[in-house]
Amino acid sequence: MRREAPQSLADYAPLIFPAGMLTVFFVIPFGTMIAVSFFQRLQGAFYEPAFVFSNYARFLSTFFAGVLGFSLFLAISVAVCCVLLGIPFTYLLTRMQRKTQVVWLVALLSILSLSEVIIGFAWSTLFSRTAGITNLFVALGAMEKPVALSPSFGAVLTGMVYQAFPYTVLILYPALVRLDPTLTEAARTLGASPVKAFFTVVVPALRNTVIATLIMVFIFALGSYLLPQLLGRPQHWTLSVLITDQAIYQSNMPFAAAMAVFLVLVTLALVGLTLFIGRKGEAA
Amino acid sequence: MSGLALNSVTKEFGSFTAVKSVQLNVPHGTFVCMLGPSGCGKTTLLRMIAGLDSPTDGAIVLDDEDITKIPTHKRNLGMVFQSLALFPHLTVGENIAYPLRIRGVDAATQKKRVDELLAMIHLTGYADRPVTKLSGGQRQRVAIARALAISPKLFLLDEPLSALDAKLREAMQVELRQLQQQLGITTIVVTHDQREAMTMADTVVVMNGGEIRQAASPIEIYRKPADRFVADFIGMTNLLDTETDSAGRAIVLGHAAEGIVLPDDLKKATLSVRPEDVHLTAPGEGTLTGKVTFIRDLGGTIETFVDVAGKQIVAVSTPRERPAVTVGQNVGINLTPDVCVVLKK
């Protein structure tokens, strides 16, 4: 059915509410943040209105470049790990009985009800030398003596993947449920082993979903600031940790705002790049 | 024996038996249609031949090799699914080349074969189009070409034409049959459409309740149905209860039917008479007498409904031999032995 385009101003009326919400809860706060990022910080006080670039200038150092690079690297790693684990997991989940699926989905969703602090402390206990999983390996004879696995990069990555995994499954699930199961069967009758069928049919058919999942998990991971502190060393701290540090502990709002704006710009650029590559791949 | 053989193939899903000890020989190059109502086990049987389901019992033998335990992807067959299952992320050419690519055929050979197949299905020049931009009939042809790309030993189709509109479906039936004869490939089609089966098949296999009720040529299935189910399922028919009286005559709807003889072991039976074999005569002249209740004139054929002792009998005739009757008139119906098939009750 073809629908007519909105004609009069009244036809646009239903948009007023969402537009208002967007203005009040996104445009105004973000605008404020951009404004603050140009303000002048007052030593021993808060800040005063001004228009200076010193906050951005301070940011342009190898130290912050390193932190930014590490933040992006960590977020990309989390996104890739989540998708690599999530696709086979969700694919097998959709092939299970309805009842089994519900149990798994409820279990996964319950992870979302845990606060980041609890997840962080739970994993740091699991990774500790005194009470961690290595004690189990020792008991099984796989290791000589228990070791501490945290703080380390692996611990940060594990914690963040754990936290983002339910989101990954939630995005992949509808696409995989809708995927015609005869596609894999057709691939098998045409000579593809089940594994080959999965990689030549299921994964490519899900390309757009996979790209969407990567972007979502990437952005989600970029904002994480508790887990890197709980499970990592200072060199594993992300830009979000430094922003929190500046905003809350150093009371340097203008600098924190400048970093946040910069992070948003870099994120947007990366998302744009991913979409661009995705579109190009589709055309090829 | 060259061809496909099913030896007591059985499939159980829990306590439900979908396919009961099916025995069937399909000689090389034959076109077989498996026909039956939904839930009769025909699709399950096809899936077992393809290896997508494994039989609970029995063996599937292809060219003297037991393939029961061989996984689907090593069976070298071609299958067309009801949903067609074209890969949405690939173009027409890439879809057709998929089985070749999976087998590691080099790009030049792939391209040559794709061009051959596209010419065969009259879609030359469509190789680079996305499959999502094709019409129903074109998608159908692409699915057929993809299944035939490796020149498979066995060509399986599961309700392949059910998504097409009636006119296109009839055209594709003829096209599919001609293609099969040209390639000489052993083909098995599952369908619930008897016209489709009659058009295409060398052998029609009628199934019901997981069992084969009759396997024979289309015309034999139509003229000599093996039982009441087959007679009723294939085409239109009049099923008339018959019994033998003390004098040994066959009694049909209270009238003695001259010349019709029931086998000695049957006291009661059912007569199957095709509507085109029912001849209307003047009242009192035929075997039965009844009253015309309705006339359906379809232009090409005329159906006359006659009520005989509460039982409705349908006669079909062409406009040329239009019976000179009107609704409410009494008519005679002539039953001759050569048109009546005696079936167990």
From TrEMBL, chain A:
Record-annotated membrane-spanning stretches: 12-39, 59-90, 102-123, 153-176, 197-227, 255-278
Membrane topology: Multi-pass membrane protein
UniProt cross-references to InterPro entries, sorted A to Z: MetI-like, MetI-like_sf
Superkingdom of origin organism: Bacteria
Protein name per its UniProtKB record: ABC transporter permease
Subcellular location: Cell membrane
SUPFAM superfamilies per the UniProt record, alphabetical: MetI-like (SSF161098)
Family statement: Belongs to the binding-protein-dependent transport system permease family. CysTW subfamily.
Keyword Coiled coil: no
Automatic annotation (TrEMBL), chain B:
Origin: domain of life: Bacteria
One MF term in the entry's GO annotations: ABC-type transporter activity
Compartment(s) of residence: Cell inner membrane
Membrane topology: Peripheral membrane protein
Keyword Coiled coil: no
A cellular-component GO term for this protein: ATP-binding cassette (ABC) transporter complex
Segments forming domain ABC transporter: 4-234
Main location as per UniProt: membrane
Keyword annotations of the record: ATP-binding, Nucleotide-binding, Transport
InterPro entries named in the record: AAA+_ATPase, ABC_SmlMolc_Importer, ABC_transporter-like_ATP-bd, ABC_transporter-like_CS, Mo/tungstate-bd_C_term_dom, NA-bd_OB-fold, P-loop_NTPase, Transp-assoc_OB_typ2
PROSITE patterns: ABC_TRANSPORTER_1 (PS00211), ABC_TRANSPORTER_2 (PS50893)
Protein family: Belongs to the ABC transporter superfamily.
Protein name per the record: ABC transporter ATP-binding protein
